[in-house]
Fold:
Amino acid sequence: MVVSVKDDPFVQTRKGMVEQQLKAEGITDPLVLTAMEQIPRHLFIPEPWRYESYDNCAVPIGEGQTISQPFMVAVMTQALNLRGGEKILEIGTGSGYQAAILGWLAKEVYTVERIEPLVERARIVLHTLGFDNVHVRLGDGTLGLPEEAPFDRILITAGAPAIPPALMEQLAWGGILVAPIGDHWMQELTIVAKEEGGLRVKRGVACVFVPLMGQGGWRPGPPTGQEGP
Ligand code: SAM
Structure:
């Protein structure tokens, strides 16, 4: 595998991102830090916004969607507690950047996106960088991918009113699911461990994600304020 970008002008900028936005803010997993230092985030961001690639914020990727802030990508990845052999399901491919980080750290990644142009773009970037272990699928990710289940880890990268039941079912025993859960305006990063004795749920940082749409997420139409987990 993967990622050798010739004449990468952002090597130093990326090191700065890791030092100032990740290490200084409490990210400690050395594997996560290395992946985020190595993977060229700017290649996942379309030209008009590429100059913002390493800023400490979410950045537009077209189609009204965003690539998450580097710190949030690191927090979510660290929460997955990856060891290298996992099969992962990501919901919300977006740019494909988070999927690439997961592909770097785990064995196999399935990632689902509902917006076709984003699927096509992510496929091209991931293929160009040599991520043969990352599979991008078009569809409603709230239904999961029953044909590929069970998954050792599941990551939802859009804000959900609650954890879609299909995803809980497709999480392996001993697995971990990470998702931003809340309303349209604010969520809490929620980490669920599926153990023999039941579910262990931890709540983490506050966050703001674009909405998880679909059968197990939000329905189209303006939010009324009455929805909720
Ligand atoms: N992980 C992405 C990255 O690395 O660029 C960022 C994800 S972006 C914050 C959220 C994405 O979730 C959007 O691209 C959106 O279209 C997608 N999404 C929302 N609901 C979805 C669903 N039901 N199934 C699949 N993707 C969905």
In short: The chain has a mean pLDDT of 94. The radius of gyration is 16 Å. The longest helix spans residues 116-128.
